[in-house]
Amino acid sequence: MIQRIQTIFLFLTAALLVGLLFVPIWENQEMTNGARAGRLLLDAFKLQFISEPNITGSEITKMLIPEKNVIYIAVLALSAALSSLFSITRFANRILQLKLGMLTSLLISALLGSIFLAIKQGNDVLTTTNKGEYLIGFFLPVVALISNMLANRFIKKDENLVRSVDRLR
């Protein structure tokens, strides 16, 4: 049924993964001669270097260095969110719901792996040795994975309850 607790967890999983598309994931500062030269910012669509404004006279501009496309992060997040939402509609078939939950977990794990890959690529570009700062977008897939695992747990619990009642008949 749609009003079950696993529906809340599945919806939370989808909402967190869609929210990932709108927040930054990671950033790192590029330092030259003790001064900040710019920052490298990763979001779900691009990895871009934003240089510091050159303050000479009245000129305050930000120069954007060409960005690297990391659209695969957004594609994985959307496909995991759609899998989670589709799982909500399959409440009558708990076995299929469990399989969709496993698929969603696999997609979120691939999403986390692709985020780590993009962070490694970003660190390779910079000359600084610091590892950067993980922002809110980094933690959203982790919470979504935990939420999806809880949903799978409650789906399995419901399936076991139905099987035990069928055994009594």
Mind explaining what this structure looks like?
By secondary structure, the protein is of the alpha+beta class. 59% of the residues lie in helices and 17% in strands. It contains 4 helices and 5 strands; from the N terminus they run αββββααβα. Strands 4-3-2-1-5 form a 5-stranded antiparallel sheet. Helix 1 packs antiparallel against helix 4. The two termini are 22 Å apart.
How does the major sheet shape up?
5 strands, antiparallel
Shape: elongated
Overall radius of gyration: 21 Å
First-last Cα distance: 22 Å
Sheet with the most strands: spatial strand order: 4-3-2-1-5
SS elements, strand count: 5
| pLDDT averaged residue by residue | 86
Low-confidence stretches: 55-64
**Broad structural category:** alpha+beta
Counting H and I runs of at least 4 residues, what is the number of helices?
Answer: 4
The ordered string of helix (H) and strand (E) elements is: HEEEEHHEH
Strand content: 15-25%
The percent range for helix content is 55-70%
Gist?
By secondary structure, the protein is α+β, with helices and mostly antiparallel strands. It contains four helices and five strands.
Feature tags:
single chain; 169 residues; alpha+beta; five-stranded antiparallel β-sheet
Layout of SSEs?
Layout: H1 5-19, E1 26-32, E2 35-42, E3 46-51, E4 64-69, H2 71-89, H3 94-125, E5 133-134, H4 136-168
Helix pairs in contact: 1-2, 1-4, 2-3, 3-4
